[in-house]
């Protein structure tokens, strides 16, 4: 049913390091995320999870070692989530640039 | 101007540290558990549990014991989600962000099992409940109560119903002693010293 070996590297523990506000310098977006969490997966990759909130929507972006790999928008009215995933590596989406 | 470091290689030292120090401050004094698990009950039969001990350098040998008991109130379920396998971390974060639990989204993500590609490894459910704890504290020195205080704190209790893991996160501090537990003990010791001087 699933791709062979898909679960072979699953993990359950992240290091929960910090939670603070952060100004996002990409996409010409002047908004600041409501929440910014930094996690580390067992492979040692840094994961930045940024959440933007509005009355209607909640948007989340996940950066892996500074590179945007996933983003999603949850709409509270329609109760739908639009999710996007990005190929790795892709320097054009670098979080640090 | 930088330091110059000189390192000497010597034979094995004969100095050792006594790791069994009576009255050493317990780590729970700083990292106080929400519930009583891991704590020992008070020998006074008063329903309190020992949080830790401390002493002041200005009053050596006078040990303050911090005890605590609590009542808790269930404030209700805040959120419940079931996330399907292969759900992206971003989608889960967005869903949590749309709830009243956005401030602990990072903590909740640590409770889920993901693949190395940041997809949910299998179907999992999270429940978040809210509890308010009314803690009362006693500082005893030589057995006598030298200080009483309280704290009212509301917590998120997050539970991964699939993994059977639980974590507590502070939601709000509602009132009571605002200092550290060491300060609480210090005040108790000072009260004892003042009453015996």
Can you put this structure into words, describing what you see?
The complex is a heterodimer of chains A (about 100) and B (about 200). Chain A has about 100 residues and is mostly beta strands. In chain A, about 0% of the residues lie in helices and about 45% in strands. Chain A contains no helices and 6 strands. Chain B has about 200 residues and is mainly β. Chain B contains 3 helices and 6 strands, in the order E-E-E-H-H-E-E-E-H. Chain B has helices spanning about 90-95, 105-110, 180-195; strands spanning about 40, 50-55, 65-85, 125-140, 145-160, 165-175. A 6-stranded antiparallel beta sheet of chain B has the order 1-2-3-4-5-6, with helices on one face. Chains A and B meet through strand 1, strand 2, strand 3, strand 4 and strand 5 of A and helix 1 and helix 2 of B.
SSE order of chain B, one letter for each helix or strand: EEEHHEEEH
Q: Give helix % range of chain B.
A: 10-25%
Strand order of the largest sheet of chain A: 1-2-3-4-5-6
Structural class of chain A: mainly beta
- Assembly state (oligomeric): heterodimer
Q: How big a fraction of the residues of chain A is strand? A: 35-45%
Helix- and strand-based class of chain B?
Answer: mainly beta
Radius of gyration of chain A over alpha carbons?
15 Å
How many extended strands of chain B? 6
Strand content of chain B: 35-45%
Q: Shape of chain B, please?
A: extended
| Biggest pleated-sheet summary of chain B | 6 strands, antiparallel
The major β-sheet of chain A equals:
6 strands, antiparallel
How many strand elements of chain A?
Answer: 6
Return the average pLDDT of chain B rounded to an integer: 88
> Which spans of chain A of ≥5 residues are poorly predicted at pLDDT below 50?
1-30
């Amino acid at each position: 049913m699933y791709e062979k070996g898909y679960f072979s590297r699953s993990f359950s523990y992240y290091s929960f390091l910090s939670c603070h506000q952060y100004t996002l310098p990409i996409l010409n977006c002047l908004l600041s995320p409501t929440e910014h969490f930094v996690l580390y997966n067992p492979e040692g990759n840094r994961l930045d999870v940024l959440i933007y909130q509005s009355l209607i929507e909640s948007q989340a972006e996940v950066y892996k070692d500074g590179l945007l790999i996933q983003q999603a928008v949850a709409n509270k009215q329609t109760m739908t989530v639009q999710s996007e995933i990005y190929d790795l590596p892709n320097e054009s989406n670098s979080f640090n640039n | 101007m930088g330091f110059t470091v000189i390192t000497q290689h010597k034979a094995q030292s004969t100095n050792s540290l006594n790791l069994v120090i009576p009255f050493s401050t317990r780590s729970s004094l700083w990292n106080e558990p929400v519930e009583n698990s891991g704590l020992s009950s008070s020998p006074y039969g008063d329903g309190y549990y020992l949080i830790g001990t401390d002493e002041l350098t200005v009053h050596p040998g006078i040990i303050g014991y911090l005890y605590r008991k609590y009542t808790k109130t269930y404030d209700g379920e805040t959120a419940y989600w079931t996330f399907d396998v292969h759900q992206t971390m971003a989608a889960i974060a967005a869903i949590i962000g749309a709830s009243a639990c956005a401030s602990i989204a990072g903590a909740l993500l640590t409770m889920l099992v993901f693949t190395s590609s940041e997809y949910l490894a299998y179907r999992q459910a999270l429940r978040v409940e809210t509890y308010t704890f009314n803690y009362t504290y006693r500082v005893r020195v030589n057995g006598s109560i030298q200080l009483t205080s309280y704290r009212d704190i509301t917590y998120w209790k997050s539970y991964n119903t699939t993994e059977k893991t639980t974590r507590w996160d502070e939601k709000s501090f509602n009132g009571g002693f605002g200092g550290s537990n060491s300060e609480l003990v210090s005040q108790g010791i000072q009260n004892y010293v003042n009453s015996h001087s």
